[in-house]
Amino acid sequence: MQIVIIGAGVIGLATAWRAAAGGAAVTLVDPAPASGASSVAAGMLTPVGELTYGEEPLLRLGLASRDRYGAFVAELEELTGLETGYRTDGIIEVASDSDDLRYLDDLRRFQESLGIPVEALTGRECRRLEPMLAPGVRGGLLAPEDGSVDPRRLTPALLAACERLGVRLVRRRAARVVAESGAAAGVGLDDGTVIHADRVLLAAGPWSGDLEGLPPGTVPPVRPVKGQVLRLRTRTPFIRRSTRGLVKGSSVYLVPRADGEVVVGATQEELGFDTRVTAGGLWELLRDARELLPGITELEFAEVTAGLRPGSPDNAPVMGPTAMPGLYVGTGHFRNGILLTPVSADILSAMLLDGPVPEVAGPFTPGRFSAGVTA
What we know:
By secondary structure, the chain is an alpha/beta fold.
C-alpha cells in the first residue's frame, strides 16, 4: 500500500514509522520536518495534570498513551541508538494561595473518583520534594505515574526510525490533494510534482485544511493556538522533577532536563498564525515561575520560542477517515501532542492499514463535527 503523510511533526513521524513497520510504502511531505510545535513543546507526559472536567474520553486516551510510552521509546531508542530524554519520576502540581489549593483539592477528588492515583501534599511536603519551592506554597498534588520526554530528542529519533524503515522524505510543501473519481489519490507539491498514493493522511497541524482540492467541510476546522516557551540553564540541580503550579488561577510549568536545561511554559494565545516572541509573554512566564520558585531568576537565559498548537473546536484530537474516500486526518492534538504520540500513531497506522483500531479512538473521529463526515 502506498501512503502519503502530509506533515512531519511528531504525530506524522510516529505514524509514518508505525505504518512503514506494518509493511506500507510511506512518503512524508514536509518542507521542515521535525520542527514546528513539536520542537517548542516541553514534553510533559501528564494526562492527570492536563485533565479538565468533562473530558473523561480524552483522559482515557492520555492514560493509554502514557502507559505505552515506556515500550514506545525503548523500541525507538534500540532501533536508532538515539536517546529521547524519557523520564518517569512523577509530576508535582503546587498551589500558591488558598484559592489555588481549593481548586487542586477539588481536582484531586475528581481524579480519585475516576480511579487515578494522586497524592495530596502539604506545603512542607511539597518543599521536601522540591526544596527550591517558595515558602508560601500552600500545598499540592503528586502524580507519581507521570513523567516527561524531550521533544527535541524525540523528533530526531522518530525521523531516524523512519529513515531506517525506508520512509521517503520529501522536503516540499504540499499544495493540493489529487483526486480520482472523488477519492484521494495522491498529493500535488508546490513545484508541480504529483505523488500518487492509495491513502493520504493530513497531519499538518493547523495547516491541515489549507490544501486545494478538499471539498468543503471535509476537514474539521483546526485553529492555531500560540504558545511561548522559555528555556533556562543551570550548572547545579534546580528542580528534580517536572513541576506545575497555579498562581492566582494561572498555570505555569517547569520541566528539567538531564543536561541542566529547565523549560518554562507556556502561554496560550488565540492570535492566529502569529509566532512572534513578545516581551509580555516572557514577562508572564517569569512572573509566575518566580512566584513559585524565587531562585528561577538566577538561572542562565538560553532561549525563548513560540509555536502553534493545533486546536480543534472541542480541543481534542481529530483522527480518522473523512468523507473523501482515501483521505484521513490526524490533527487537533492541542496541548497534548507529545503525550498522545504513541497512541495516535497506533490508531492512525491501524486505520491506514485496515488493522484493528484501539477502542479509545472512538470519540475522536472527524464524524463528531459533521454529519457529512464518516466516523
